[in-house]
Inverse folding.
C-alpha cells in the first residue's frame, strides 16, 4: 500500500475553506462556486512543497506565506480564483509572470498544455525550478527576466496570468495575448488594487472587468517584477 500522505486532510480542509470563501463572495465574483477541475487540482498539488521548510506546518492555511526576499506565496483562495477566471484548457499555452517557488505554475501545469513562467529574482527562480523539477513537471519552462516585458519568443499566448500588480496593464502583455485569449492580473496603486479579468476578442478588441479588491507585490517596472507564486 502507498504511504499515507499526512498533508491530505489539510488539503481537504483548505479546499473546503476555498469553497466557503467563494460562496461568501458570490455576489462580487459573479459565481457561487469554482470549476470542479480547478478544485480537484487544488486538492492534489502539494502546497507544502512550494514553501520554505520553516513554514510547512502552515502550508494549507488559507493565507499568503513568506518565501523570502520580501515575497509571498499567494493565498490559496486567490490562486484558485485566478486559475478559475483564466479558464485554462488542456491545449492552452500559458504565460505566468512571477514564478515564485512554483506553486501557481504547478496548478497551471496540471490544467494546461504548456506553461512559460518568468521570475525576476534569480534565487527565487532557482527554488521554483528545484521544486517543479522534483515533482516531475515537464510542461513548465522557466526563465529569469523582466516579466513586465513578457516573453515574446513564445507569444502569442492563449492565457496570461500576472501575480504582481502594475499600475496599468502592460502593453507588452496585451500584445502577446492571442485573439480570443484571457489574462488575469492585479492592477492599481498599493492599497487600491483590483483583480482584473482581461479578454481580447477575435478581432483584437480589449475588454476588462474588475473582480475583487486584492493586495499583491508591485510590478517593478521598468527594471523587473516582484515575483510571487
Amino acid at each position: 500500500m502507498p504511504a499515507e500522505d499526512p498533508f491530505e486532510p489539510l488539503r481537504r480542509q483548505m479546499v473546503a475553506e476555498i469553497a466557503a470563501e467563494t460562496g461568501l463572495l458570490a455576489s462580487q465574483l459573479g459565481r457561487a462556486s469554482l470549476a470542479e477541475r480547478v478544485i480537484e487540482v487544488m486538492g492534489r498539488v502539494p502546497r507544502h512543497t512550494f514553501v520554505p521548510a520553516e513554514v510547512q506546518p502552515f502550508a494549507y492555511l488559507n493565507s499568503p506565506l513568506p518565501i523570502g526576499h520580501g515575497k509571498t506565496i499567494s493565498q490559496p483562495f486567490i490562486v484558485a480564483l485566478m486559475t478559475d477566471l483564466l479558464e485554462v484548457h488542456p491545449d492552452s499555452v500559458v504565460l505566468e509572470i512571477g514564478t515564485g517557488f512554483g506553486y501557481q505554475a504547478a496548478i497551471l501545469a496540471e490544467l494546461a498544455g504548456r506553461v512559460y513562467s518568468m521570475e525576476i529574482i534569480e534565487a527565487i527562480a532557482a527554488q521554483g525550478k528545484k521544486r517543479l523539477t522534483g515533482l516531475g513537471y515537464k510542461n513548465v519552462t522557466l526563465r529569469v527576466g523582466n516579466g513586465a516585458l513578457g516573453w515574446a519568443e513564445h507569444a502569442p499566448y492563449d492565457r496570461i496570468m500576472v501575480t504582481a500588480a502594475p499600475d496599468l496593464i502592460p502593453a507588452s502583455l496585451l500584445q502577446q495575448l492571442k485573439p480570443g485569449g484571457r489574462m488575469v492580473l492585479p492592477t492599481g496603486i498599493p492599497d487600491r488594487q483590483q483583480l482584473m479579468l482581461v479578454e481580447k476578442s477575435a478581432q483584437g478588441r480589449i475588454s476588462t472587468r474588475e473582480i475583487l479588491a486584492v493586495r499583491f507585490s508591485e510590478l517593478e517596472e521598468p527594471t523587473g517584477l516582484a515575483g510571487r507564486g
